[in-house]
Amino acid sequence: MQQWKDIDLDELDLWIGVCILMGVSHRGSERSFWETRWTIRRPVASQIMSRDRFKAIKRRLHAESDDEHSPRPEDPDKIGVLLNMFLETAASIYIPGKPLTPET
Questions:
Q1: Using one digit for the tens of pLDDT, what is the confidence trace for 39-66?
Q2: pTM above 0.85, yes or no
Q3: Does pLDDT of 102 surpass 70?
Q4: 89 touches 80 (CB < 8 A)
């Protein structure tokens, strides 16, 4: 296993993009996105980042308070702010019943 390298915002954006791609494609396991056999290969994820790097980020990514005496773990501290921003943005662009395509 490689030594950990800190992640920057650009790489976090790429990692989130791969997660979204995996969520919307519904095509097999996480591992299959880095498959090398031509019959089932999906090269997009492997062109964005290596499978090992994706897994390393996934393993280490977490949100925690800077305060030693932080609120209960279930309280939406830092991750809650990010989640709320995502939900507000999604709600502002999604219209139920309309297709989600660039042409609409």
A1: 666 678 888 999 999 999 988 887 665 5
A2: no
A3: no
A4: no
Question: What do you get for the CA distance between the two ends of the chain, in Å?
Answer: 45
3-state DSSP call for residue 94?
A: coil
Q: Work out the average pLDDT over 19-46.
A: 77
* Spatial distance between the Cα atoms of 35 and 5, rounded to a whole number of angstroms: 24
The residue whose two tokens read 């990514």 is 61
C-alpha to C-alpha distance for 79 and 76, rounded to whole angstroms: 6
Q: Where do the H-state alpha helices sit in the chain? A: 9-25, 43-48, 51-60, 78-93
68 CB-side CA count, 13 A: 0
What is the distance between the alpha carbons of residues 100 and 84, in angstroms, rounded to a whole number? 21
